[in-house]
Amino acid sequence: MLPADRVLQEMAAGLRDAQRRIARLETLETPTFGAIACLETKTPDGVSSVTFSAISQDFLHLWLWIIASDPAETPGGTMLVTFNGDTDGNYVYLSKFQTKSNGTELETVAGGTSVANALSIGKNGDTAYWGSCEVNIYNYALFDSVATQRTITWKSWHGFEAGGEIGSIVGIGRGGGKWINTADPITSITVSAGGGSFTFANGSLLTLVGICPI
To answer: Could you tell me the fold of the domain covering 36-213?
Structure first.
């Protein structure tokens, strides 16, 4: 065998080893780093709602993280979510809030089977106790083009300084709902601070995350 042939064989063997190492690294990294991606973060200041538009269709599910406060209203409003600008009564939801004030607990229930023009989620707090909320939006892009209603689940924490004899109040919320539309992938999401005069204070953060790339 000529020296040049031996060199070529060694180079080919080294290339095969490198390719095998790359393949192993890709296999290891995909579930760890490729399953979640931050799509966009909004930082509203004094506006009544924010919209995530042109949402990537390359994931199975969406995850929305919110920390928010109202600059003027006490307590903050119950936030609302709509998809693709749809406000025509195509939503159904059920929300529960457990509130504690000076050791007294109260549970309230809202929503039901009647249609609504938006999905109710967690509350934003006042400037003393900011509210936080986590929203899961499932199969938003209609995987494999199968027609289905899009469901969401959510959980939240909020509070406010009531003052006087009432003292501070803390609430924990949870709930879920669905968008009746079964034909259109979700391409935009609007989050309202609560309707009416409610707004998002400076410092509020809303982050949209994609889960499980497809």
So the answer is: Jelly Rolls (2.60.120)
